[in-house]
Specification:
By secondary structure, the chain is an alpha/beta fold. The chain has a single domain, classed as 5'-nuclease (Rossmann fold, 3-Layer(aba) Sandwich), CATH 3.40.50. 54% of the residues lie in helices and 15% in strands. The chain has seven helices and six strands; from the N terminus they run βααβααβαβαββα. The chain has helices spanning 7-15, 19-30, 37-50, 55-68, 85-96, 107-110, 123-132; strands spanning 2-5, 32-36, 70-72, 101-103, 114-115, 118-121. Strands 3-2-1-4-6-5 form a six-stranded mixed β-sheet. Strand 5 and strand 6 form a beta hairpin. Helix 1 (7-15) crosses helix 2 (19-30), helix 2 crosses helix 7 (123-132) and helix 3 runs antiparallel to helix 4 (55-68). The longest helix has 14 residues, at 37-50.
Length: 138
């Protein structure tokens, strides 16, 4: 399964132990990780500016992601009824990359449910799904 992880999931995966770390590990181990330039730029900024991660460490994290994920190309922006333009771009990137699922901690984005064949799930929903029915995301 092709899984696009939103910035907030990746930040949580690298900053804390818990659900998002488990989701990240699950995706790396059993699925195909998809990210985008938008997500990677946001991730780098948040790691350095909000979490005060040294630049060398944030570059290592980005290098790891570049080596272990497909990076989605710039998409045509979808017409979505969500307020944050950056979130519209991220959803559009997930659709453009042919992701099966977009995992996000953003409630407004998660409320979309499904966009052009891409399931939009919270980290908890994704985790519960792969634990109970790993082969089916319909």
């Amino acid at each position: 399964m092709r899984v696009f992880l939103d910035t907030n999931v990746l930040v949580s995966a690298f900053a804390t132990r818990g659900l998002c770390e488990d989701v990240f590990r699950e995706v790396l181990t059993f699925h195909e990780l998809v990210v985008s330039g938008t997500v990677l730029t946001e991730l780098e900024n948040l790691l350095q500016q909000k979490l005060l991660v040294p630049a060398t460490m944030s570059r290592e994290i980005l290098g790891f992601l570049f080596s272990n994920a497909e990076v989605a190309q710039d998409p045509t922006l979808l017409n979505l009824s969500i307020s944050d333009e950056a979130d519209i771009r991220i959803v559009s990137e997930a659709v453009s990359a042919g992701a099966d699922v977009l995992v996000t901690g953003d409630r407004e984005v998660a409320a979309l449910g499904k966009v052009e064949g891409v399931r939009v799930l919270s980290p908890r929903q994704f985790w519960e799904h792969v634990r109970t029915d790993p082969g089916n995301l319909s």
